[in-house]
Amino acid sequence: MTTVIAPSAARQRVALRIGTYVLLVLGLVVTLAPFAWMMLGALKPTGEIIADPTAWLPKSPTLGNFADLLSRQNFGLYFVNSILVAGACVVGNVLFCSMAGYALAKIDFAGQRILFSLVLVMLVVPGIATFVPLFVQVSNLGLANSYLGLIMPYLVTPLGVFLMRQFIGEIPDSLLEAARLDGASEVRIFLRIILPLSGPALATLAILTFLFQWNNFLWPLVIAQTDNMYTLPVALALFAVGANGTNYGLLLAGSVAVVLPIVTVFLCLQRYFIQGIASTGIK
Amino acid sequence: MTSIVANRGGDPARRRRTLVAWSFCLPFMVFFLAFGLWPVLASLLMSFTDIRSRDLRTPVNVGFVGLENYVTLFDDPTFVRALLNTLYFVVVGIPVTMVISLVIAVALNSGIQRLKGFFRVGYFAPVVTSIIAVAVVWRYMYQGDGLINGALAFVGIHGPDWLNDPVWAMPAMIVMAVWRNFGIPMVIFLAGLQGVAPELHEAASVDGASRWRSFRSITLPLLRPTTLVVAVLLSISYLQFFEEPFVMTGGGPLDSTISIGYYAYEQFGFGLYGLASAASYVLVLVIALLSFLQFRLFRTRS
């Protein structure tokens, strides 16, 4: 049995499909244009950028801006700081949030519901709401302007526990019960069954943590007081609002230094990024 | 019956499980209490005091001032402006973000096969960028003689000096926020659209309904729960509006882009920790209201 489609309906369908592609391509061009413009601009000397702010292609492309960032502006150190802080937070979240997530998902214990409710509530409390007392407390611990001060408030996150609890909850109970009947301890179950089965979940958590910390701004801005403790976004922002605000070559190159590494990681691991963000929905 | 009583009364196995479970939670709890829960409470407490930067070393000098900080805030036209600007950003930014992300999601879900993954990655890319870097780049694109006005001139529009114009600075920031954020609701909508059974549309088309009609009468109602979730999540993220004015305008011109977050940060910079806490707690209250809505929402969904 063949379906007969009226020629006009078929033509309409083709037109619709073409229209969809035109819309998607135009939208994509607009979406990607700022990236292209940033990268092309970073290759121009500042004089050329100021002379014609609407130009796209560099007339005399140079890596001079990047050389300046490294030699005169200490961006190498900021880059290392960003990696250190984000890396430490990844380790803390993967380790501690998976442990707590396991207890919340698979052990029936007193206080479980309260703890999980608190985690849910804290999911929606943003950094801007608590940075003042956090600053007072970290300062009183003597950790202002230190790596520990930068890292400790984000070493575990409610989001991490929430994600791990949801993922670990999907592991079938029968696997754990069999192990418990065999006399395996909870520690052994966690190490031998839960962790090996949580690979994709841990990867998602690691990637999201790295992304949030790499882009985190308010806390490092508040707690880093001398420039040797700056992370990339802090250095770039203070550079942009300071005396160098019109040094566009350096500013665009600095933006590339912040954006390009994370976009590269995103392009390699995009499945985890998109699934992770779709499942949490939080920025 | 007896087993329930035994469970209630502290069944030794359950007591042991509780101990084991809390040991698993211990490292998380230490940091969660110290750097998560306590600051939320401390922020509230500090908002009722006159704590300043110089009190850091001598906390005994801190005095209880009741609601004075909140009175100061609402007497300050700059704070009221910050509150209104933040709401402007949320109320205009969210619908625009949602409409654009829904249009793209529907286009991606319309049965196209070629390049679908490529489009999705491209549209999502702005989400992973640092707001600071984005603000630095867009500040330059928004210059009076910059790229955006160049593009507008191409179609015959004479654009304003966006960031130096009290009327146009906020819309400029909203457009930028939409660009950076629409990828998030896009992937959530895509997941929602994939849950709409194609048979429903086929049935509608057999009954002679146009595509637009079947989108409006079938797809949109089925997406309502997704839409509400997206709205609440976006509002929580848009309420934190801070980096954009920090980099692009310093809150100006004429306070037209100052936000609650920026105001709180400024007061913190002046050393007025009590006032800064009160300002950020206004934000907590707005978010609490929204999360209450969110919990209600999740309950009605499941």
Automatic annotation (TrEMBL), chain A:
Entry's transmembrane regions: 21-40, 75-102, 114-135, 147-168, 189-212, 248-269
Top-level division of the source organism's lineage: Bacteria
UniProt KW ATP-binding keyword: no
Domain ABC transmembrane type-1 intervals: 79-269
A GO CC term assigned to this protein in UniProt: plasma membrane
Record's keyword annotation contains Transmembrane helix: yes
GO terms classed as biological process: transmembrane transport
InterPro entries attached to this UniProt entry: MetI-like (IPR000515), MetI-like_sf (IPR035906)
Family: Belongs to the binding-protein-dependent transport system permease family.
Protein name per Swiss-Prot or TrEMBL: Multiple sugar transport system permease protein
Protein species of origin: Kribbella caucasensis
TrEMBL record, chain B:
Key words of the record: Cell membrane, Membrane, Sugar transport, Transmembrane, Transmembrane helix, Transport
InterPro entries: ABC_transporter_permease, MetI-like, MetI-like_sf
GO CC field: plasma membrane
Keyword Transmembrane helix found: yes
Location within or outside the cell: Cell membrane
Protein topology in the membrane: Multi-pass membrane protein
Transmembrane stretches, start-end: 20-41, 87-109, 121-141, 168-191, 222-241, 270-293
Residues annotated as domain ABC transmembrane type-1: 83-294
PROSITE patterns found in the cross-reference section: ABC_TM1 (PS50928)
Transmembrane is among the record's keywords: yes
Gene Ontology terms describing biological process: transmembrane transport
Protein family according to the UniProt entry: Belongs to the binding-protein-dependent transport system permease family.
PANTHER family: ABC TRANSPORTER PERMEASE PROTEIN, INNER MEMBRANE ABC TRANSPORTER PERMEASE PROTEIN YCJO
Name of this chain's protein: Multiple sugar transport system permease protein
Annotated organism of origin: Kribbella caucasensis
